């Protein structure tokens, strides 16, 4: 295929609209099967739903109640797959479920956990067990019994970026801050018109189009493709708060509320606890979603009913909200709307296919991508078979454990502060060595911007990971926004203006 950008619109096998987890997952899978792939995202990778999650790779214990056995079985099996693919950003996590007698009988929870332990393959993760809480428990004194089970934690925005890198390393073209303004079928191809953030326009052609626009999936079909959407989308808002660490220990808590909803309290970045999520119908612009005062009170109330340490609004250091674009199954209760995904293929003989993705969750993105490719295979008989189950994501190659990597980095670079080595191991895995190429001393990392962020890392993120703004770096690539002062953040903004003025990002690997 001719990869020089000629005035004539290039023809790709697959064009993907949307740079959230489903879009990048499909792009990576397709590129690895030998398809030429173009992906566009109107904002930053993972800027919306995919970075606003509870950051869990989990089977979905509560989906058992809604009898979503297929989804739970698939999600449970995926935990082990993702632990092996990305050991730097996915880690096992024990969950404590305090038992509240007025909610569900203990035998029912035990039965659910037995099912959870055995429904999917479980090699690395320990089984569930019953617990008794003593005087030293961080929970309220009247909570004396509970259960413990395993799931996993993930850095959600990094999972998206790593899949985009995996796609690029297999030849895909990834264009962030590039909006698809229209697409139409003509002579067996999609003709796609795009607009970059700087106002410049480009056009491409593609043999198939994937609509992975998340909360915008139905709007994209109606407004940009001028077609009827096959399914309705319900936007369900989920909000989270970050507070100083609630309890000692590495375990998370899953709290059952009187309304039968659950709220997680998860250890986060060593010093904090992440608390969420809520479930409420959302009707505005998905890009403008923000936590409401009612949601804030709801989360604080649930936590305060369970923990001895009482929180108030003054304890909230940061909050975020996102909308989950769930397939409308006409359920009355937002928390009962299916978390499963639906793929809708629109293809008439001789016409280029359109595959639209409705719903889905972080945990099952890889299976969703395989299912999407299975639907598109008839148009690409040359495509290779499934391959993503065992391939490590960038940074997950040759990695034993994080601690072994930290040790190796510190012994090779005696001057490297352990805190930086540890943070890099968690973010970049074995790609940390790339950051240190040709570096002989601390001064070679450039200017220290604060909280262990040096300009060398900023340059790496702009060159290799599509970072453009301070927000991309502080909140999605590194999470250092929680650690840096306003002055330090302003200096980063200034540095980006000087060294990385906004220009269309280089797409080369």
Automatic annotation (TrEMBL):
<comment type="similarity">
    <text>Belongs to the FAD-dependent glycerol-3-phosphate dehydrogenase family.</text>
</comment>
<keyword id="KW-0274">FAD</keyword>
<dbReference type="InterPro" id="IPR000447">
    <property type="entry name" value="G3P_DH_FAD-dep"/>
</dbReference>
<dbReference type="InterPro" id="IPR036188">
    <property type="entry name" value="FAD/NAD-bd_sf"/>
</dbReference>
<dbReference type="InterPro" id="IPR031656">
    <property type="entry name" value="DAO_C"/>
</dbReference>
<dbReference type="Pfam" id="PF16901">
    <property type="entry name" value="DAO_C"/>
</dbReference>
<dbReference type="Pfam" id="PF01266">
    <property type="entry name" value="DAO"/>
</dbReference>
<dbReference type="GO" id="GO:0046168">
    <property type="term" value="P:glycerol-3-phosphate catabolic process"/>
</dbReference>
<feature type="domain" description="Alpha-glycerophosphate oxidase C-terminal">
    <location>
        <begin position="388"/>
        <end position="490"/>
    </location>
</feature>
<keyword id="KW-0285">Flavoprotein</keyword>
<keyword id="KW-0560">Oxidoreductase</keyword>
<dbReference type="GO" id="GO:0009331">
    <property type="term" value="C:glycerol-3-phosphate dehydrogenase (FAD) complex"/>
</dbReference>
<dbReference type="InterPro" id="IPR038299">
    <property type="entry name" value="DAO_C_sf"/>
</dbReference>
<protein>
    <recommendedName>
        <fullName>Glycerol-3-phosphate dehydrogenase</fullName>
        <ecNumber>1.1.5.3</ecNumber>
    </recommendedName>
</protein>
<dbReference type="GO" id="GO:0004368">
    <property type="term" value="F:glycerol-3-phosphate dehydrogenase (quinone) activity"/>
</dbReference>
<feature type="domain" description="FAD dependent oxidoreductase">
    <location>
        <begin position="13"/>
        <end position="365"/>
    </location>
</feature>
<dbReference type="InterPro" id="IPR006076">
    <property type="entry name" value="FAD-dep_OxRdtase"/>
</dbReference>
């Amino acid at each position: 295929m001719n990869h020089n950008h000629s005035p004539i619109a290039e023809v790709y096998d697959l064009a993907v609209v949307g740079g959230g987890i489903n879009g990048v997952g499909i792009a990576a899978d397709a590129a690895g099967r030998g398809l030429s792939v173009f992906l566009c995202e109107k904002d930053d990778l993972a800027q919306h739903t995919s970075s606003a999650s509870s950051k869990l790779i989990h089977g979905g214990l509560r989906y058992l109640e809604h009898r979503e056995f297929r989804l739970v079985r698939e999600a449970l099996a995926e935990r082990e797959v993702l632990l092996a693919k990305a050991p730097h950003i996915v880690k096992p996590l024990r969950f404590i479920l305090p038992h509240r007698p007025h909610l569900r009988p203990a035998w029912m929870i035990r039965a659910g956990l037995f099912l959870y332990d055995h429904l999917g393959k479980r090699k690395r993760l320990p089984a569930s067990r019953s617990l008794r809480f003593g005087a030293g428990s961080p929970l309220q004194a009247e909570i004396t019994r509970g259960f413990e089970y395993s799931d996993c934690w993930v850095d959600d925005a990094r999972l998206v970026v790593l899949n985009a890198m995996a796609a690029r390393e297999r030849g895909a073209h990834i264009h962030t801050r590039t909006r698809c303004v229209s697409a139409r079928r003509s002579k067996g191809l999609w003709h796609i018109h795009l607009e970059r953030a700087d106002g410049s326009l480009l056009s491409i052609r593609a043999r198939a189009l994937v609509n992975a626009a998340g909360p915008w999936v139905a709007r994209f079909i109606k407004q940009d493709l001028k077609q009827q959407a096959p399914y309705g989308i319900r936007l369900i808002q989920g909000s989270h708060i970050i507070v100083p660490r609630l309890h000692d220990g590495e375990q998370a808590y899953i709290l059952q509320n009187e309304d039968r909803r659950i709220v997680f309290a998860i250890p986060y970045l060593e010093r904090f606890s992440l608390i969420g999520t809520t479930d409420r119908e959302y009707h505005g612009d998905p890009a403008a979603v923000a936590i409401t005062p009612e949601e804030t009170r709801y989360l604080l109330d649930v936590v305060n009913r369970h923990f001895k340490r009482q929180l108030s609004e003054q304890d909230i250091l940061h909050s975020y909200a996102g909308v989950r674009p769930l397939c409308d199954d006409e359920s009355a209760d937002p928390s009962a709307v299916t978390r499963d995904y639906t793929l809708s293929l629109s293809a008439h003989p001789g016409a280029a296919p359109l595959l639209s993705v409705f719903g889905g969750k972080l945990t099952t993105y890889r299976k969703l991508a395989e299912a999407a490719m299975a639907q598109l295979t008839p148009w690409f008989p040359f495509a290779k078979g499934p391959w993503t189950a065992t391939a490590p994501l960038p940074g997950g190659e040759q990695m034993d454990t994080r601690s072994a990597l930290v040790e190796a980095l510190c012994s090779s670079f005696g001057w490297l502060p352990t805190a930086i080595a540890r943070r890099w191991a968690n973010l970049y895995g074995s790609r940390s060595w790339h950051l240190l190429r040709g570096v002989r001393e601390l001064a070679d990392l450039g200017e220290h911007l604060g909280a262990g962020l040096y300009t060398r890392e900023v340059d790496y993120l702009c060159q290799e990971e599509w970072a453009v703004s301070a927000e991309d770096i502080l909140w999605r690539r590194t999470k250092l926004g929680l650690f840096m002062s306003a002055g330090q953040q302003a200096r980063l903004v200034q540095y980006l203006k000087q060294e990385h003025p906004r220009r269309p990002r280089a797409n080369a690997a």
